[in-house]
UniProtKB/TrEMBL annotation:
It comes from Rhizopus stolonifer. It comes from the Eukaryota. Keywords: Coiled coil. This is DNA repair protein rad50. Residues 111-158, 259-310, 346-490 form a coiled coil. GO terms for molecular function: double-stranded telomeric DNA binding; G-quadruplex DNA binding; single-stranded telomeric DNA binding. One of its GO terms (cellular component) is condensed nuclear chromosome. GO terms for biological process: chromosome organization involved in meiotic cell cycle; double-strand break repair; telomere maintenance via recombination; telomere maintenance via telomerase. InterPro entries: P-loop_NTPase (IPR027417).
Length: 619
């Protein structure tokens, strides 16, 4: 559980770091454009400002048209166009015309200023709109950062709680382990105490039997030396028995430690197996998630292909507009070149005229009076020609003025006609709008406003929910893209050649399972063989004991004796308790506590001889 919480916390921290970097990048992009200002509000302000500047330009154009019309009306009617008051003399007309001219001369500069300001603001607006996507992404990232921060706090709390649980469990486990060790020690002491208690009881029974035997024998009592010798023999046997018991306990401790080691190894193997199963489940989940991401990627690719299919038509429109723009630019360039050529010709004519005057003055200073007279005559002819040319130019100017006047009147008539046409169109549209308004008012009278208000509120709520959902989906989409990148990196780095490694681990696990199964079968067969061997040896042992007893013991109370082995415990931890029984007329009875000391000694000697013959011959 702690490892799972750590993994989720690490993944969430990585996502938080990535989102922080994205937010810093978006903030840097936005700050280069508008600083710390609110971008949507700045866009609205710029749009209002551009609209206001365009209205100013339109107003300037309208003022120019009004001034032209006022001048035209003054020329046609010779009175003030505003109040229809006739002018008293030419000075008032000149004053009126000069005022109009000043106002008209003021308009182009102001109009150009407004146009430049509008163009600059449009450029800024374009930059703002280009940065609007970064602003929206920044807002989405901020929302994601809030959710990630909450997730981090929750996961850190879970980690703290889980760590506390782990520490408590570790402490409890250590305490239980200490208690188990103490219990094992106490169990060993209890077993020793119980063994000593049984030995004391056995010795007490032996003492009582010896006392009874001594009482029955009377004069046949043994000497102190015999008793001491028997006691020494018994002490030696007791030492041997204790050594055997100690060795058996040592073997039991070794076997117990071996069993504990095997249990630890088995537990480690189970933990490894659980970890492999967890990794396998994680792999399946990652494959499923990867498949979903692939499907989403295919959907995005289809959308992109659809957009690319629509792109040629848009490109064609853009190309046509570009061609029109280039044609217009070429026209303006041609006109500009034409005007430049005319300006160049005029300046060239002026230079030639100055050069001619210079040469003329120079010639006047250098030549004689006759030459001066000829030149003066030539000058007179030229002046006559110039005067004639001026008269021709005056007539041409008058004709041009008449043509311009006719053109202005024609334009005025055309504007009036356009205004009339526009007025009629607007009248028709107004009538249609009034009719539509009447129909809408009739429908509105029939329409339930409360229901519409409720529907409108519901639709606004749905719109807000959809906007929030869109933001969350965009955040999830960005998070999923980051997860795709991270998972691809993990697949490339951590899960590289995972199939091969999984195959090797699978083979190892299966090999260990088969080996464990074979070992279990071998252990069972070995246990069966040992038990069978043990039973056969016990039969041989009892057969030899019976023969030796019959040949040695001459009493009639016991036909023969045998050794019985009673098994205890399960098959895996089986132990044997051996006891000596005496048989009389087919009836079996435990020999312990029911026989004399001599019978015990004889039984011990016979059993040792039988054991030696059974287990030490052909070994």
């Amino acid at each position: 559980e702690l490892s799972a919480v750590d993994a989720r916390l690490r993944m969430t921290k990585q996502q938080h770091t990535t989102k922080t970097q994205e937010m810093e990048k978006y903030i840097k992009v936005i700050s280069t454009v508008c600083g710390d200002k609110n971008l949507p509000e700045e866009i609205k302000k710029k749009e209002k400002l551009i609209l206001s500047l365009k209205e100013q330009v339109s107003n300037m154009q309208g003022a120019t048209m009004i001034y032209d019309r006022l001048e035209l009306q003054q020329k046609n009617q010779s009175c003030c166009p505003m109040c229809t008051k006739p002018f008293e003399d030419q000075s008032e007309i000149d004053t009126f015309l000069s005022t109009l001219e000043q106002m008209r001369n003021f308009i182009p500069a102001q109009q150009e200023k407004y146009k430049k300001s509008a163009m600059e603001e449009e450029k800024k607006l374009a930059k703002y709109k280009a940065t609007l996507s970064s602003w929206m992404k920044l807002e989405t990232v901020k929302k994601d950062m809030v959710s990630l921060s909450e997730s981090l706090k929750t996961l850190e709390q879970e980690k703290t709680a889980t760590s506390t649980k782990v520490e408590i469990a570790s402490t409890e486990f250590a305490q239980v382990d200490d208690c188990k060790i103490k219990a094992d020690k106490l169990l060993l002491i209890a077993r020793n105490v119980y063994r000593l208690y049984k030995e004391i009881e056995s010795l007490n029974e032996d003492i009582m039997a010896t006392e009874r035997e001594l009482g029955n024998q009377g004069s046949k009592t043994r000497t102190m030396t015999d008793v001491q010798r028997e006691l020494e023999d018994y002490a030696e046997k007791s030492k041997i028995t204790r050594r055997d018991i100690k060795r058996i306990h040592t073997d039991m401790d070794v076997q117990r430690r071996r069993v504990q080691a095997i249990e630890l190894s088995l537990r480690d193997s189970r933990e490894k197996k659980m970890k492999l199963e967890h990794d396998l489940n994680s792999k399946v989940a990652l494959e499923y998630t990867l498949q979903e991401y692939k499907e989403q990627l295919q959907e995005h690719i289809d959308q992109q292909e659809k957009i690319e299919q629509d792109a040629p038509m848009l490109k064609h429109k853009v190309q046509s507009v570009t061609e029109e723009y280039e044609a217009t630019v070429q026209t303006w360039k041609a006109q500009e070149e034409k005007m430049s050529m005319e300006e160049y010709n005029i300046s060239r004519f002026s230079d030639r005229l100055e050069e001619f005057n210079t040469n003329l003055n120079k010639s006047a200073n250098e030549t004689s009076s006759q030459r001066v007279h000829a030149v003066k005559k030539e000058i007179s002819d030229l002046q006559t020609m110039i005067q004639k040319t001026k008269e021709d130019m005056t007539r041409v100017d008058e004709k041009l003025a008449i043509i311009e006047k006719d053109e202005a009147e024609r334009r005025g008539v055309e504007r009036d006609l356009q205004d009339q046409i526009k007025y009629r169109e607007m009248s028709v549209e107004l009538a249609q709008c009034e009719q539509d308004l009447k129909e809408l008012e009739d429908k509105l009278a029939e329409f339930d406003r409360e229901t519409a208000a409720r529907d409108l509120a519901r639709l606004h709520a749905e719109e807000s929910q959809l906007i929030d959902k869109r933001g969350s989906l965009r955040g999830e989409l960005g998070q999923m893209r980051d997860q795709i990148k991270r998972y691809n990196a993990e697949l490339t780095r951590d899960y590289d050649n995972v199939d091969g490694r999984y195959g090797k681990l699978f083979i190892d696990v299966k090999t260990h399972e088969l080996a464990n199964s074979d070992l279990e079968k071998y252990a069972k067969v070995l246990q069966t063989a040992i038990m069978k061997y043990h039973s056969l040896k016990m039969q041989d042992l009892n057969k030899i004991i019976k023969e030796l007893w019959i040949d040695t013991y001459k009493g009639g109370d016991i036909d023969y004796i045998e050794v019985r082995a009673d098994s205890e415990g399960t098959t895996a931890s089986r132990s044997f308790n051996y006891r000596v029984v005496m048989i009389q007329n087919g009836k079996e009875l435990n020999m312990r506590g029911r026989c004399s000391a001599g019978q015990k000694v004889l039984a011990s000697i016979i059993i040792r001889l039988a054991l030696a013959e059974t287990f030490c011959v052909n070994c």
